[in-house]
Every structure is written in C-alpha cells, then in structure tokens.
Amino acid sequence: MTATAHSRGDTLEQEVDVNGRHNLVTATLAACAATTVAMYARKRGWDIGELAVDADYDPDSTPRHVTLELHLSDGLTPEQRRRLERVARACPARRALEAGFVFEEHPSS
C-alpha cells in the first residue's frame, strides 16, 4: 500500500493519493513529511520544484514497518538534498509514532 503526498503549487497544501484504499497513518506520514520539507525549503528560499513523498506501510510486519521516499527535483545540491531528507525524518507525525502511545481503558458508566 502506498500513500503519495504532492504539494499543490506554491502552497503548503498537500494532495494525498492512497492506492485506492484509505490508510490514515500512511497518508498522514506522507503529508506531514512533505509539508515539513516544503516549510523548511520555503524559509530558506530554496526552489524545490515538484515535491512528492511516498509512504509504504507493511501492516503485516512486527514491528510495523514504514518506508518513506522523497522525490525531489534534480536542481538541488547534494547538501540541500541531505538536509531535506533529514527534515523529512523529523516530521511531527513520525516523531509521535516513534515515541509510541499509551492507551487507557475506562469502563462505561
């Protein structure tokens, strides 16, 4: 299953395509990484052209496995590409998932 986030013009809005199926975690990761990269590049005045992020989720693995792939324009320097890849790894949705969750159960009244 693949979710791909595409930036919409010069905005931070993302359009997410999910293989005909909906997986909100995968879509959230793709959109979060794309938005974080776009914001970082915008602050530095970098023209990153068309940006797309693929998030592939394997729901059958233990622990669960997600692969992110950035599709960046060819006009970027190797250093810019490295920085943008590092920024994508630091998106808030990914950090929240990596930190884990605690669930509480409350009996109904």
Question: Can you give me a brief rundown of this structure?
Answer:
With 109 residues, the protein is α+β, with helices and mostly antiparallel strands.
Query: What's the CATH topology name?
Result: GMP Synthetase, Chain A, domain 3
| Poorly predicted segments | none
Level-1 CATH class name: Alpha Beta
CATH homologous superfamily classification: K homology (KH) domain
CATH architecture: 2-Layer Sandwich
Largest beta-sheet characterization: 4 strands, antiparallel
Calculate the mean pLDDT score and round it. 87
Spatial strand sequence of the major β-sheet: 2-1-3-4
Label the overall shape: elongated
Strand residues, percent: 15-25%
- Count of alpha and pi helical runs: 3
Return the domain count. Answer: 1
Along the chain, the helix and strand elements come as: EEHEEHH
End-to-end C-alpha gap: 40 Å
Q: Helix/strand-derived class?
A: alpha+beta
| Number of separate strands | 4
User: Helical percent range?
Assistant: 25-40%
For the CA atoms, what is the radius of gyration? 16 Å
Describe this structure as you would to a colleague.
With 109 residues, the protein is of the alpha+beta class. The protein has helices at 24-44, 78-89, 92-99, and strands spanning 2-7, 14-18, 52-58, 65-71. It has one domain (2-99): GMP Synthetase, Chain A, domain 3. The chain has a four-stranded antiparallel β-sheet with strand order 2-1-3-4. A hairpin with a 6-residue loop joins strand 1 and strand 2 (14-18). Helix 1 packs across helix 2. The chain starts with a strand and ends in a 10-residue tail after the last helix.
